[in-house]
Amino acid sequence: MTNKPPKSIADFMKDLGSDEAEFKKYYKSFSDLDKEIWKDIAKSTLKRVKSEEVYADYAVREKMLSFLYTLIEELKGYKAFVKYQFKNQKNGRFGLTPVFLDDFKEEFMAFSHEIVNEGLDTTEIINRPFISDKYADALWLEVLFIISFWLRDSSAEVEQTDAAIEKSSNLAFDLLGQTPLDSAFDFVKFLIQRK
């Protein structure tokens, strides 16, 4: 690996012993190929997570933890690729999500909405006016944080990443769940309604 993209699709395919037309059957550009690789990582991660026998019994917090731990396991096989992608990233809208993660994000957001809705149904997550619709986006930011943290983690067995996963998920779901501020708000609302 040279850590440089091929100069052209033709050169890339020539190195593989094929021609550009074969590549163009599936992808328009290297960017499309990158997006497909990331989408496959997301799908593979979700498939592994959801195939665990205990998955259905997990609380939503545990489902997110399982996703993040499994994602890091999946990414270990692509570490050079992931490092290269993030080193040379071009951010999409609003500068938060790199363009190559567009399809990955789409897959994750479907999962995120699924667990947020489940959490709202079970009251593990509290419905809050105006911000509940942004919960899935907050979980996406956690995914970006964890990938970034993992790329910088120099601990022997990435145990620092494991700790970051646990602590960031605990914080996220503590904030999404019932907090003392929610109780205070409910109490003030009760007092106002009594007047």
Could you characterize what this model shows?
The chain is mostly helical. The protein has one domain (29-194): Tetracycline Repressor, domain 2, CATH 1.10.357.10. 67% of the residues lie in helices and 0% in strands. The protein is built from 9 helices and no strands. The longest helix is centred in the N-terminal third of the chain and has 21 residues, at 30-50.
Output the helix-strand order.
HHHHHHHHH
Instruction: Report the CATH architecture.
Output: Orthogonal Bundle
CATH class label = Mainly Alpha
Number of H/I helices: 9
Structural class comes to: mainly alpha
Reported by name, the CATH topology is Tetracycline Repressor, domain 2
Number of strands: 0
Give a quick account of the main beta sheet: strands, pairing sense, barrel closure: none
In helices, the fraction of residues equals 55-70%
Range of strand content: under 5%
Unreliable stretches (pLDDT < 50, length at least 5) are none
Through-space gap between termini = 72 Å
Return the average pLDDT rounded to an integer: 88
Under CATH, the homologous superfamily reads: Tetracycline Repressor, domain 2
Shape: elongated
Radius of gyration: 21 Å
